[in-house]
Design a protein that fits this description.
The chain is mainly beta and about 170 residues long. The protein is about 0% helix and about 40% strand. Strand 1 (about 10-15) and strand 2 (about 15) form a beta hairpin. It starts with 11 loop residues before the first strand and ends in a 6-residue tail after the last strand.
Length: about 170
Amino acid sequence: DLTFMVGTENACSGGVPVVLENIAKVSDVSGMAGPDPDPADNEVTLTTTPVDTTPPMLEVTVSPTTLWPPGHDLREITVSLSASDICDDSPAIRLVSVISNEPDDAVGDGNTDLDIQGADLGTADTMLLLRAERAGGGKGRVYTLTYEAEDGSGNITTVSKTVKVPHSESGR
């Protein structure tokens, strides 16, 4: 029995690991072993199919994170996105959801609706509008923006960030 250990760096193509082929071959280079009774068994090929199970890294920064004063106007929210992966040079980033902990037209919020606008779900949207309002009798509104990054192997990372409309200025 003869055992070989072979190591390799990550090899990727198109965002997924490539199949590795290892060939082991023996020969009588010294001529001392004599004729080989079965030369057909002098070479073996082993194929290894690596599996990428590491999800991508995703960084999400939202600005501003607080909307004050709550004047019922729509404010522009800018999002910075960055994703990296061990195999995929450009993981897909997409906006999954934008939700509020209060309904659009809650009691005591100024009777407005369409508090979330311009959010293009399923894309790497980096600009949307959120309404600077909250229910007067509540604890403050919290918008939650959720993004995900997916690499070529189907591994997904999800990150959520919040934008707050505090109940009062002291809650900022």
